[in-house]
Each structure stands twice: as C-alpha cells, then as structure tokens.
Design brief:
Largest sheet: 3 strands, antiparallel
Helix content: 40-55%
Order of helices and strands: HEHEEH
Structural class: mainly alpha
Shape: globular
Strand order of the largest sheet: 1-3-2
Oligomer: single chain
C-alpha cells in the first residue's frame, strides 16, 4: 500500500483540527501553501469538512480525524 502525496496532504490538513474539541474549526487562507489549499478543497468535496476553505469537521470528517489520530499514535 502506498499513499499518494495528495492523501498525505489531506492528512496534514486533518491534523490542523483541534483534537480536544470538534467545535473548533480551521481557516485556510489564500496565502497558504497551494498543496494545503488544494487538499482542503478535496476534503470539502469528499464531505469531510464544512467549507471549501476549512470550517468544521462533518460527522464523516470527525470519524476520519479520529482514525487519523489513532494511526498517528500507533506509528509514533
């Protein structure tokens, strides 16, 4: 199994969310790295975040975030 750079970028964006509160969103500004802007747009298109430039995690996004946190914990 290999992870594409796009998936890794999406995981990096998910990692920007606060693990202590799902009521806290993010805002990806136009000055952010292009790969982060693109990853944020893809996460929105996949239904994981509420806004094209960040916003809040959707229920599916919360599930993906929780799994990413668990994976990161296992690997580190």
């Amino acid at each position: 199994m290999s992870l594409s750079n796009e998936i890794i970028d999406e995981l990096e964006v998910l990692d920007l969310f606060n693990s202590d509160s799902t009521n806290e969103g993010i805002k990806v500004h136009a000055a952010a790295e292009p790969k982060i802007i693109a990853a944020t747009k893809r996460l929105h298109a996949k239904g994981l975040i509420s806004q094209v430039d960040g916003g809040y995690l959707t229920p599916l996004g919360i599930e993906a975030f929780d799994l990413a946190v668990k994976l990161k914990s296992i690997l580190t």
